[in-house]
Amino acid sequence: MGKLDGKVALVTGAAAGIGLAAAQALVGEGAIVYLTDIEDERGAQAVAAITAGGGTAFYSSQDVREEAGWEDIIGRIKKDQGRLDILVNNAGIAIAGSITEMPLEAWQRQNAINIDGVFLGMKHAIPVMDLHESGSIINISSVAGLKGAPGLAGYSGSKGAVKLLTQSVAGECAADHKGVRVNSVHPGIIDTEIWSKMPNGIDPTEGLLANITPQDGANTVNPQDIGAVMAPVGYAGMPQDIANGIVFLASDDSRYMTGSALVIDGGLTA
Ligand SMILES: NC(=O)c1ccc[n+]([C@@H]2O[C@H](COP(=O)([O-])OP(=O)(O)OC[C@H]3O[C@@H](n4cnc5c(N)ncnc54)[C@H](O)[C@@H]3O)[C@@H](O)[C@H]2O)c1
């Protein structure tokens, strides 16, 4: 018996990192999980592995910036499963660099994925959750959404927006009395590829990441090196550490939590 037997979940950015670990953990508790991403080959491979392990999962290509894509995937889930219980708004990118050097295009792209994606997900999921009067929305913010992150100012602004958006929508849903809960998760330094994907031409070793020696090439930093310097526990967390919190927020174990900010950061903000 899993904690999420009979539940239907959608996880964005689920081809890798925290999203993939979250999808696997939700399946492990019995949920039917829809994984979406723009990395179609990896997403399909992830679903094949979950299915081979006896879980039920589906992959769909989805760019979280596009409203039509949200209508498609949520419409498909409603038609095929008749319900949507869990939405993990996980897709996100990080663009480093000082604010005076950040191209407007980079600022807007980051906000489109990190904020517009979360907005659109909630906009289209809540009406379906309202129909069966239950649901848990989990928005992945960051420790950079709790305190400033010099060198990652644009990212920090986008993640701070996710926190307050979460709290405001949680209040709206609570007032509706339809059982939809909305919480944010704030990971610290987690060992995923996000650290090596920071766009070329921007020095990620400025500000927040000062004193970190790039591993190979100016834009490739090892999250374990960053964790060793920045996290009081002395190491970076793993995607599973965040997935554990996501399962908790998805399940009825957290039934009295809404509008909360769950911090999983090895003491970084303590
Ligand atoms: N790794 C960390 O240290 C850390 C810390 C705090 C918060 N976070 C947040 O956790 C979330 C997951 O990050 P991760 O570390 O697993 O990174 P990741 O890069 O490993 O995974 C992110 C996934 O999102 C997908 N994605 C990117 N743009 C997309 C788009 N437009 N539409 C759909 N999918 C898209 C990517 O293809 C990728 O599979 C992000 O929101 C990130 O900001 C990560």
Detailed description of the structure:
- Helix 2 (40-52) links the parallel strand 2 (32-37) and strand 3 (57-61).
- With 270 residues, this protein is an alpha/beta fold.
- The longest helix has 28 residues, at 104-131.
- The chain has one domain: 3-Layer(aba) Sandwich (Rossmann fold).
- A seven-stranded parallel sheet has the order 3-2-1-4-5-6-7, sandwiched between helices.
- It has helices spanning 17-28, 40-52, 67-81, 104-131, 153-176, 223-230, 239-250; strands at residues 8-12, 32-37, 57-61, 86-89, 135-140, 180-187, 261-264.
- The structure holds nicotinamide-adenine-dinucleotide (NAD).
- The site of nicotinamide-adenine-dinucleotide has 29 residues, from helix 1.
Concise account of the structure shown:
The longest helix is centred in the middle third of the chain and has 28 residues, at 104-131. Helix 4 packs parallel to helix 5 (153-176). The chain is of the alpha/beta class and 270 residues long.
Feature tags:
about 270 residues; alpha/beta; Rossmann fold; 7-stranded parallel β-sheet; 7 helices; about 40% helix; binds nicotinamide-adenine-dinucleotide
Whole-number mean pLDDT: 93
In this structure, how is the largest beta sheet organized?
7 strands, parallel
What is the ordering of alpha helices and beta strands?
Answer: EHEHEHEHEHEHHE
- The percent of residues in helical segments reads 40-55%
Beta content comes to 5-15%
Low confidence ranges: 211-218
Distance between the termini: 36 Å
What small molecules does the structure contain?
nicotinamide-adenine-dinucleotide
Structural class from helices and strands?
Answer: alpha/beta
- The counted number of beta strands is 7
CATH superfamily membership: NAD(P)-binding Rossmann-like Domain
Shape: globular
Please indicate the count of domains.
Answer: 1
Number of helical stretches of at least 4 residues: 7
CATH architecture: 3-Layer(aba) Sandwich
Question: Radius of gyration over alpha carbons?
Answer: 18 Å
Within the CATH hierarchy, at the fold level, what is the topology?
Rossmann fold
CATH class: Alpha Beta
Strand order of the largest sheet: 3-2-1-4-5-6-7
